Task: inverse folding
């Protein structure tokens, strides 16, 4: 065996080189860490809640002026992924931000709502889980589950919101979503609010009953009718009765990780859902009606009551309220971002008066009022023609609706998915109700235990 001898001088050189490389390596790690971890308290705030002003024609102006814009070489690029196409409102918002901000440029990647969309969702989830992904995402391309929150894949925006003056006093409740205790992970620049009313003839005393009483009334109602429309299947009818409760009206015990679906209420919810689903495609009139609270379409409470409607809205654990539909415009920040300051600059810009000017139903209260007072002026001048009689009284009524709306309890998708999957066999007549209830309970219990 040949032996290799190294002179002592060479050993000294090698040792020095090794130490030098080690210093460089440690220095590199330190640099990488500082780039990766940027604390919210160290972020420079560019925009406050009341920054900017209402701009009536902002969307069309920025699409025209910025359609061919390119990032300037001295700007840091912030990457954003979302669904849809280039005509989506967020395109104009990004164009506006890119024109205004001197340090950051948002580059958007949009994924069409086509057959590959679900694959893109899975790809993005894997990227984020492995420490990669874009700086900003919308929740259509990156749906947020309880697991994602628990694994800290998203930045808690609470301190940043406080620094930018983005508070409950300035915004309708819809603005703050994807919450966990006092933490907030998603900001929603726009809102989608829906109410529900029932034909007053169905209710004996025209008063809002508690949920179980309503189910009993609907089961006993003798007139042939569909629930909401001819297309509504049993699983969708059932959602109206279940979606507003954090524990499915006592069927789930989150502390003990147990469940009991053998309740009389759940049995009757299945029955009433099947009853009205079986009436589809027979030409019967609906007894329930959605109220879409879009400005220019919302007639106001007084008009609904004159039609003989009783406004039920949706059943939540603490009462009846209009329901916020989760918006595809909801913005979240990837916790892997190396540019938290730039990512927050865009999110906070979206919540300013200027940014909110893009949205038909902005969540900024003052901007909402300004926008709709302008609409009232256009109606008076003959420049706008709403589908309903839109007055200042109706506007104030709408403000009340938007102020009292609620999101359905978050992170219930897996449990509701199980209920949907199994209840379908009862609605189709393939399985008896008791069998379906037993299967649902076993599957949900297993999920809770896991």
Result:
């Amino acid at each position: 065996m040949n032996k290799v001898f190294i002179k002592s001088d060479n050993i000294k050189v090698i040792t020095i080189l090794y130490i030098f490389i080690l210093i460089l390596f440690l220095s590199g790690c330190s640099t990488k860490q500082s780039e990766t971890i940027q604390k919210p308290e160290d972020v420079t705030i560019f925009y406050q809640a009341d920054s900017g002003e209402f701009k009536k024609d902002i969307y069309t102006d920025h699409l025209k002026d910025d359609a061919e814009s390119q990032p300037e070489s001295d700007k840091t690029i912030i990457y954003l992924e979302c669904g849809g196409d280039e005509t989506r409102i967020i395109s104009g918002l990004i164009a506006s931000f890119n024109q205004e901000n001197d340090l950051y440029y948002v580059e958007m990647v949009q994924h069409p709502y086509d057959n590959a969309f679900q694959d893109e969702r899975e790809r993005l989830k894997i990227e984020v889980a492995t420490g990669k992904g874009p700086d900003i995402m919308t929740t259509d391309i990156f749906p947020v589950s309880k697991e994602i929150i628990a694994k800290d894949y998203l930045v808690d925006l609470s301190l940043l919101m406080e620094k930018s003056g983005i508070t409950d006093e300035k915004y309708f409740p819809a603005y703050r979503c994807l919450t966990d205790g006092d933490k907030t992970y998603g900001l929603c620049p726009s809102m989608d609010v829906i109410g529900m009313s029932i034909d007053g003839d169905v209710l004996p005393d025209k008063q809002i009953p508690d949920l179980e009483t309503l189910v009993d009334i609907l089961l006993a109602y003798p007139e042939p009718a569909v629930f909401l429309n001819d297309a509504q299947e049993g699983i969708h009818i059932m959602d109206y009765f279940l979606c507003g409760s954090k524990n499915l009206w006592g069927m789930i015990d989150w502390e003990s990780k147990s469940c009991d679906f053998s309740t009389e209420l759940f049995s009757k919810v299945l029955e009433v859902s099947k009853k009205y689903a079986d009436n589809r495609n027979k030409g019967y009139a609906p007894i329930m009606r959605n109220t879409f609270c879009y400005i220019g379409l919302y007639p106001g409470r007084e008009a609904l009551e004159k039609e003989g409607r009783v406004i039920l809205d949706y059943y939540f654990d603490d009462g009846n309220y209009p329901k916020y539909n989760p918006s595809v415009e909801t913005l979240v920040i990837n916790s892997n971002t190396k540019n938290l300051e730039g990512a927050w600059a865009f999110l906070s810009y979206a919540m300013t008066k200027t940014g909110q000017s893009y949205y038909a139903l902005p969540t900024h209260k003052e901007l909402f009022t300004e926008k709709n007072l302008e609409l009232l002026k256009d109606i008076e001048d003959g420049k706008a023609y709403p589908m309903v009689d839109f007055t200042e009284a109706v506007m104030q009524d709408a403000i009340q609706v938007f102020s009292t709306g609620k999101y359905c309890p978050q992170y219930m998708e897996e449990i509701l998915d199980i209920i949907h999957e199994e209840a379908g066999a009862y609605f189709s007549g393939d399985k008896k109700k008791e069998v379906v209830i037993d299967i649902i309970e076993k599957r949900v219990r297993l999920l809770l235990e896991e």
Q: What stands out?
A: The chain is about 40% helix and 15% strand. The first helix runs from residue 8 to 36. Confidence is low (pLDDT under 50) at residues 1-36, 64-68. The CA atoms of residues 356 and 362 lie 6 Å apart.
